[in-house]
Model the fold of this input.
Amino acid sequence: MADFIKSYQANVGLNHVPAYQVSGQPYVEAANAGTAMKVSFPYVTRWFQVINNTSSPLRVGFSQAGVEGTTNFFQVDASGSSGAGKSEIYELKVSEVWLSGSTQCTVVAGLTSIPASRVATSIGPSWSGSSGVG
Done:
C-alpha cells in the first residue's frame, strides 16, 4: 500500500487557496537597476507593485531575457511633477521580478506563506523561459 501524506502534514503549494485569501506579509525592497537586476522574494507573492523614482522609464519583467529583450516586459513611467511613476498592483504569484533602467526604484509586495522554491519549474524560477516571460 502506498504511503500518503496526511493533509495536516502537507506543505502548501501554488494552488493553496487559503494562502491567497488572507492579507499578504509586507515586503519592501529598494533597488538600483541601472542594468538588469533581479529582486527575489522569500515567499511567493500574492501581489506586487513597482515604483520608479527617476526621470528614466523602468522595464519590469519576470526574467533577465524579458527585461533585456524587446517584448516580454512592461514599463513603469518615469517620475515627474505629479510624483513617482507607479505600476498597477499586480496580483501574480511570482518568486522574482527583474528590473532595468532606473537607479532608484522600489518593489512593494504582499507575500503568501508559500516558499519561493514552490514556483520553480523545469524551465526556471517564476516561469523563466516560458512563453510570454522570456
In short: The chain has one domain: 15-118. The two ends are 43 Å apart (CA to CA). The chain is about 5% helix and 40% strand.
